[in-house]
Write a sequence for this structure.
């Protein structure tokens, strides 16, 4: 008889095998981080239920079990080895094991030796991720699978982080997307994270076995894996217990049950962990702290007896919905703060019904709404005004501190910070791709440890040794918290430590302040997270200043919206917001359809509210609403794509030559097109990127951290192969053309050498003639000779004279292409000046014109009635100048020059596009910011990757435009 234990990140599994290795006992239980208590409980129970188990050979495995096993005298078996033993014993011939656990994900390649791919620091795409998503959708976990089976369309959702995916899903919910569609999208995100993040270029094929809770309980998740991998995987009976079974199969020693149970119960960590000073030394300190913050109070009045003018403010936030009713003196008549539960429309309807029930004769003069759900709520209830979140919060903060210098708002998964200069918003900081400094960060840990957030936050107020957890992402933090628990940290210490961590994340990752002094001394804090006294105290200690936290910190968005409506209406008139009778006949119907009015073919979610009111979501432009094609006359991004479309294939004697349309090819295609066309090749390029193209090459991507534009190259090359290209030309280019703007003119390492990655990771590349030679187009005199040397290896019939003629025409074509862009850019600037329009320099790289990379950001910004030009239009108008960084990359030199030029123009603003995973942009963003801010210009950055939701982008652009109006 054998007994095996698997101590996972969230659960404990225990099995007993008989002498024929048949399972005679199993249990699967969550441990809620109380690992040792649960082990002792299970061992005691098994001893009572299975005769003879005390003589069994016992071993323990699992990600959280090693310390306990070592200290308590139980044989430990590494979990990967245990899985391999179990798979080979029960399913001989297994090639690949895919296992998803609570916070662990792994792929085991068993063919030709053992190779293991595990998630190191991110739990995106694991059981914890799926748990969080089910909570966000407000559906029981067990229903998520059935929900997904009824999907009609899918959305692109981030699975890179188990927390930040909420930012993609919440706007979809607010826009009325069907939960079944989102559920399926979540499963596909898990598959994407596993395949791209773990397989890292090694193809998953052969006999595939699915293990772990999510894959056992969710057949639709297995189905998504099967579709992506084009296979039919095996989910064996008892798949949950394979690690425990493997441990049992490896067991070689018996144990003294009494001693082990006693040792496990008494097991304590070392007590050695880094810690911070207490938040409060004494109860008296806390009392004084509370008294000081009680001064920033909005007076509460009675709604039921109120007869005057009333103003309604609504805030449909990322995870919560807030509503307030004010009198004409700004005093609070009524308020609500509720979780959105994925349907803000129903929450707002109930809020309005409560108001009318309490005071049927209320005179609502004006109303306004802000937040993620602003558009749908404004349309649903005929709210008078929509206001961008940043302005709503600034309006509220000024009520409490008219000379405020800095505002920080920490919400459920948003951080918004504003620097105020001369009474206007001077700079805006929003969290880009992580919500580790937000309320959901604390909420996640509170829930995992079995507390509600209110109880959990209070525990930390008087902790003696708050754990020093640093500033890390939610998922990374799990391992730190568990280690601290093992080392003897109390729940109180962990609660306080997490509050400190929230503050450090906000200050040093979002705001990236080099010192607290940068932010000023007149500070207002707001957002529901700051109602947590531990977080507030941690912020004051870290900043070294006393701040103002209004008693309505969680309602400030709604409060600011109400004040805004009061100002805009001049306290006169009658609000158009739906009244009591209209609410009785209120309907909310959702229909999903394809737009079909342009090549984007957007999947639209149409929300209908009766009487002709509707809200359309999922559209990249206003065409579904206006039925007219958007004007792109003043959009350089659109012009560049049209210019590239002019290069059509011409039949050639030397056959077809395909070029992957990605990265630097968006500006060098004219050069190579003309060069090879003159050499009698039929030159064509892969189609512009889309989701299907990306997925074509996904399995061959070796790095999950490389930028999205680079990942797309795998799909481009695979598409060319599938479309029958005889030759694929994708050269390595260390240098770009020298534009005399920097210290050198390199391409970034990814752009320069990604052909090497393609060659070494795509097995289908052997089916074609793949040319990845190194060329130096920056040296026109040497290029023909070098090109002839390299190309004659592949095409022996080429002559040097042919290559010289082709090269001369290629350089001329490139100059012509560049001149057309410059001329069009100048025309756009002149026309914008004539019409008095703002000009936005959408500054990035050549490949940011790819529609799948920019997700229609150019069209979204153009929708605000501004002109769009690219950085290369204005970079040429600047002479080389000194920078604070080594200015050696051509693309970067353009960014710096563009920023320099924009800083001299009052009618121009720069918005920098940055791709996730671009390490060198950590340098460019700081330098561009410094160049702009030295001339009192606002710096705006938009980070983009494969995610298509533009909600956060819209907030940022509206915030910038609102700030410019106030200047």
């Amino acid at each position: 008889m054998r007994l095996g234990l698997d101590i996972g990140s969230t659960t404990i599994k225990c099995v007993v095998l008989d002498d024929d290795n048949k399972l005679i006992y199993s249990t699967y239980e969550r441990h809620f981080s109380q690992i040792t208590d649960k082990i002792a409980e299970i061992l005691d129970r098994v001893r009572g239920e299975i005769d003879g188990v005390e003589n069994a050979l016992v071993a323990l495995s699992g990600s959280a079990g090693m310390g306990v096993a070592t200290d308590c005298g139980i044989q430990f078996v590494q979990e990967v080895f245990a899985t391999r033993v179990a798979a080979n014993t029960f399913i001989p011939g297994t090639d690949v094991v895919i296992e998803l656990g609570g916070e662990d994900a792994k792929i085991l390649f068993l063919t030709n030796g053992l190779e293991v791919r595990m998630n190191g620091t991110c739990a995106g795409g694991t059981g914890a991720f799926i748990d969080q998503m089910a909570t966000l959708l407000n559906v029981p976990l067990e229903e998520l699978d059935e929900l997904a089976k009824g999907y009609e369309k899918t959305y692109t959702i981030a699975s890179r982080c188990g927390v930040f995916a909420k930012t993609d899903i919440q706007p979809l919910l607010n826009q009325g997307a069907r939960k079944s569609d989102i559920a399926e999208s979540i499963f596909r995100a898990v598959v994407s994270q596993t395949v791209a993040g773990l397989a890292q270029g090694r193809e998953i094929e052969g006999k595939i076995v699915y293990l772990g809770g999510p894959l056992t309980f969710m057949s639709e998740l297995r189905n998504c894996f099967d579709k992506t991998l084009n296979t039919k995987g095996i989910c064996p009976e008892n798949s949950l217990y394979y690690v425990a079974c493997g441990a049992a199969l490896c067991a070689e020693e018996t144990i003294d049950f009494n001693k082990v149970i006693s040792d496990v119960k008494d097991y304590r960590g070392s007590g050695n962990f880094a810690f911070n000073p207490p938040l409060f030394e004494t109860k008296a300190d806390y009392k004084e702290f509370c008294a000081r913050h009680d001064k920033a109070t909005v007076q509460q009045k009675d709604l039921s007896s109120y007869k005057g003018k009333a103003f309604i403010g609504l805030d449909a936030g990322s995870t919560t919905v807030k509503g307030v009713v004010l009198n004409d003196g700004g005093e609070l008549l009524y308020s609500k703060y509720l979780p959105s539960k994925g349907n803000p429309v129903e929450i707002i309807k109930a809020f309005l019904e409560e108001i009318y029930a309490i005071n049927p004769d209320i005179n609502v003069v004006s109303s306004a709404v802000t937040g993620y759900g602003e558009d749908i709520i404004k349309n649903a209830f005929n709210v008078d005004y929509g206001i961008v979140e940043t302005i709503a919060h600034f309006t509220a903060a000024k009520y409490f501190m008219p000379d405020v210098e800095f505002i920080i708002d920490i919400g459920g998964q948003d951080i918004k910070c504003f620097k105020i200069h001369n009474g206007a918003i001077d700079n805006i900081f929003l969290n880009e791709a992580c919500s580790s400094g937000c309320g959901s960060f604390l909420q996640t840990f509170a829930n995992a440890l079995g507390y509600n957030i209110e109880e959990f936050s209070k525990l930390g107020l008087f902790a003696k040794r708050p754990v020093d957890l640093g500033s890390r992402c939610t998922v990374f933090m799990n391992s730190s918290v568990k280690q601290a628990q093992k080392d003897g940290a109390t729940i109180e210490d962990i609660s306080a430590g997490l509050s400190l961590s929230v503050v450090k994340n906000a200050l040093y990752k979002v705001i990236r302040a080099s010192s607290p002094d940068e932010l000023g001394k007149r500070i207002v804090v707001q957002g529901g997270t700051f109602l947590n006294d531990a977080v507030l105290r941690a912020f004051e200690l870290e900043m070294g200043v006393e701040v103002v936290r209004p008693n309505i910190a969680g309602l400030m968005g709604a409060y600011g919206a109400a004040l805004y409506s009061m100002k805009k209406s001049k306290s006169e008139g009658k609000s158009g917001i739906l009244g009591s009778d209209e609410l009785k006949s209120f309907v909310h119907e959702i229909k999903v359809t394809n737009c079909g009015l342009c090549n984007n073919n957007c999947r639209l979610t149409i929300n209908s509210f009766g009487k002709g009111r509707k809200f359309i979501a999922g559209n990249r432009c206003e065409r579904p609403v206006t039925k007219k094609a958007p004007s792109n006359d003043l959009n350089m991004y659109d012009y560049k794509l049209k210019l590239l479309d002019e290069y059509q294939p011409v039949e050639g004697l030397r056959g077809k030559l395909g070029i992957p349309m990605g990265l630097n090819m968006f500006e060098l295609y004219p050069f190579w097109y003309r060069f090879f066309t003159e050499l009698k090749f039929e030159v064509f390029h892969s189609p512009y990127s889309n989701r299907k193209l990306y997925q074509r090459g996904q399995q061959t991507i070796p790095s999950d951290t490389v930028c999205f534009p680079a990942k797309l190259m795998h799909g481009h090359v695979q598409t060319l192969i599938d479309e029958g290209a005889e030759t694929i030309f994708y050269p390595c280019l260390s240098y770009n053309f020298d534009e005399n703007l920097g210290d050198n003119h390199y391409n970034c390492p990814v752009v320069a050498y990604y052909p090497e990655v393609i060659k070494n990771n795509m097995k289908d590349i052997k089916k074609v003639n793949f040319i990845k030679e190194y060329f130096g187009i920056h040296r026109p005199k040497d290029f023909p000779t070098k090109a002839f040397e390299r190309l004659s290896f592949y095409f022996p019939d080429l002559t040097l004279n042919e290559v010289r003629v082709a090269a001369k025409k290629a350089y001329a074509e490139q100059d012509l292409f560049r001149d057309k862009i410059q001329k069009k850019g100048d025309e756009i600037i002149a026309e914008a000046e004539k019409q008095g329009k703002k000009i936005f320099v959408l500054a990035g790289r050549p490949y940011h014109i790819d529609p799948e990379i920019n997700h229609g950001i150019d069209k979204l910004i153009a929708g605000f009635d501004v002109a769009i030009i690219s950085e290369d239009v204005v970079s040429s108008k600047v002479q080389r100048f000194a920078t604070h960084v080594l200015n050696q990359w051509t693309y970067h030199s353009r960014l710096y020059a563009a920023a320099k030029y924009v800083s001299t123009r009052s009618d121009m603003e720069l918005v920098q596009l940055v791709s996730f995973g671009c390490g060198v942009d950590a340098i460019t963003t700081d330098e561009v910011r410094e160049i702009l801010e030295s001339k009192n210009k606002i710096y705006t950055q938009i980070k983009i990757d494969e995610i298509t939701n533009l909600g956060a982008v819209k907030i940022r652009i509206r915030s910038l435009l609102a700030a410019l109006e106030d200047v």
